[in-house]
Design brief:
The complex is a heterodimer of chains A (about 375) and B (about 100). Chain A is mainly β and about 375 residues long. Chain A has 1 helix and 28 strands. The chains are: A mainly beta (about 375), B alpha+beta (about 100). Chains A and B meet through loops of A and helix 2 of B. Chain B: This is Thiamine biosynthesis protein ThiS.
């Protein structure tokens, strides 16, 4: 891909969506807000077909959730008249929000959504209408899944690029669930993940507080999980996990991002602890491993002394050959790196709290 | 006999700019759910802003029937008279 192709970064905040665009990833123009006063929780730049489609999941505290898309990068927005995601009547459930939007790696018309409450949804028309996955919704564990501070949601959806029948989802609390039969049945995949907050059984089958899972870009059966206290790697497609937290400044954090071009490489954004949700030593920083979690390096160049942090989906990458990495903070700043996190520069500041960051590359 | 359903300014674009929607009630009184169903029938996006897919009024939306908060009455089962006025109002909450 040409290094001169334009980059677009979607910045979803607590009070609307901004779109940052750049031809060189140094100078950025900012367009927004779209959906002013709505919490923008999920974004997807769907570049599988031309033109690029941007899907946005947001909610207004007054008017409820909505999912809209644009095929002209925000000039006009389309909302399905009947609502893209509506819980079926027999569930006696109302949608609270769409937390995750993911392009299927096998079918260019398929988009997956993760919602609050804990639903997984499949669209076969590029995100215009969705159908509830009944295998997960009817899972006997569902009544025991809990709610994190932000609510109970499917916050991670990772279809396998190696197998169209394989997918991992994650929730807090509840943990990891896997399917290998195209979503008909789901099994918990939390073996090895510590749940210190469950005093009677700290190693339960499910109930873990998994904050984010990322899939290795070279080895699809390898995954990285940032937990509520604990960082883990799985080498068996998310069934069992081993700790990779040694060498990190802290085992707490909200997000994990796999390097999109290089296997065994993953970024985390460490947070001091669950009781002190600030950067370690009040220095905003990322941690990167290039050996699948065996060793870690702190990345701080260009990042400030700070009392803020980075939320679950407020980090993402673009698709350039040398990928850009973008992180957004709770105090409304967005930083970009074009050297794998060795240095960062400011994309935007003085925005509302950043909830989600996703990037795309335009033709 | 006509019920007036008065919309807040923030939602009027979703009803082609209308400030209020008339609903004819042939048989006299009707539940609020029926009145809202009829008022919003041509405007499904507007309907979803006010009520969720179960038909419940959203948490931070208030609906008044002749000045009475429906949530403090019978909710969407609150009786609406044939000449009543229904106000849809966004709650004074936010951050």
């Amino acid at each position: 891909m040409s290094p001169m192709s334009e980059t677009i970064v979607g910045i979803g905040t607590r009070k609307g969506l901004w779109l940052a665009r750049s031809k060189d990833r140094q100078e950025w123009s900012l367009d927004g807000p779209h959906f002013l006063m709505s919490e923008v929780l999920s974004l997807l730049f769907d570049t599988r077909t031309d033109p690029t489609r941007l899907l946005v999941g947001f909610r207004s505290s007054h008017w409820g959730p909505s999912l809209q898309h644009t095929d002209d990068l925000g000039a006009t927005w389309v909302e399905h008249p009947e609502g893209s995601i509506q819980f079926p009547a027999d569930t006696d459930t109302a949608l609270k929000a769409t937390w995750q939007l993911v392009a299927d790696p096998h079918d260019p018309n398929v988009v997956w959504a993760g919602t609050e409450p804990q639903g997984l949804w499949r669209s076969a028309d590029r995100g215009e209408t969705f159908e509830l996955n009944r295998g997960l919704w009817d899972h006997p564990h569902r009544p025991e899944w809990g709610e994190g501070f932000g609510g109970g949601a499917i916050h991670t959806v990772l279809p396998s690029p190696a197998d169209p029948d394989s997918m991992l989802v994650a929730m807090s609390t509840g943990g990891v669930y896997n399917t290998t039969d195209g979503g008909q049945s789901w099994s918990p995949g939390n073996t090895g993940i510590h749940a210190y907050f469950m005093p009677h059984d700290e190693w339960p089958e499910f109930g873990q507080c998994v904050h984010k899972v990322a899939r290795d870009s070279a080895t699809p059966t390898r995954l990285y999980a940032q937990n509520h206290k604990g960082v883990y790697r799985s080498d068996d497609n998310g069934v069992t996990w081993t700790s990779i937290e040694a060498g990190l400044p802290t085992n707490f954090g909200m997000t994990a991002v796999a390097h999109p071009r290089r296997g065994d490489s993953v970024w985390l954004v460490p947070i001091a602890s669950d009781g002190e949700r600030i950067p370690p030593d009040a220095q905003l920083q990322l941690a990167r491993s290039d050996d699948a979690g065996a060793t870690w390096r702190a990345l701080t160049t260009g990042l400030p002394h700070s009392w803020t942090n980075v939320l679950r989906d407020a980090a993402g990458t673009d698709t350039h050959d040398q990928p850009g990495l973008y992180v957004g903070t709770r105090n409304g700043e967005v930083y970009a790196s074009t050297d794998d996190g060795e240095s960062f520069s400011l994309v935007a500041s003085q925005l509302p709290d950043v909830l989600v960051v996703r990037a795309g590359t335009l033709p | 006999m006509t019920v007036r359903v008065v919309l807040p300014g923030l939602l009027r674009d979703l009803a082609d700019g209308a400030a209020e929607l008339p609903v004819e009630l042939d048989g006299g009184a009707a539940p609020l759910s029926t009145v809202l169903d009829r008022a919003f029938e041509p405007w499904p996006v507007l309907a979803r802003r006010v009520r969720d897919e179960r038909g419940e009024i959203r948490r931070h939306v208030n609906v008044f029937v002749d000045g009475e908060d429906a949530k403090r009455a019978e909710g969407v089962d609150t009786e609406v008279g044939a000449t009543s006025t229904v106000h849809v109002i966004n709650a004074v909450s936010g951050g």
